[in-house]
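This part of the workshop introduces the protein records we will be handling. The question running through the whole workshop is how a given chain folds. To make this concrete, we reproduce a full record directly below:
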Amino acid sequence: MGYDTVLAAGFRSKREQKKFAKLLSIANTYFTDGEWEEGVKEMTKEYCLQEAKRLKIPDGWQSNSSYDSLKWWFFQACR
């Protein structure tokens, strides 16, 4: 993805887009509701929360289960 594409998507830099991509990956896993054993679901959600914290993502991202709402939230909370 070229730099112009990143800017056209609303990101200020490639670095900001990479941070969002990491958050998006975490959120996709967090919101997956597969046919997993309950213990696996709980452990996976906990891991996602820890990874978001490690990336210094503020709490609140878990309230955004769609791409558009997560991206809007990210622009508001992480800039």
Observations:
- Residues 3-77 form one domain.
- The chain has four helices and no strands.
- The CA atoms of residues 64 and 70 lie 5 Å apart.
- The helical segments are 3-8, 14-31, 38-54, 67-77.
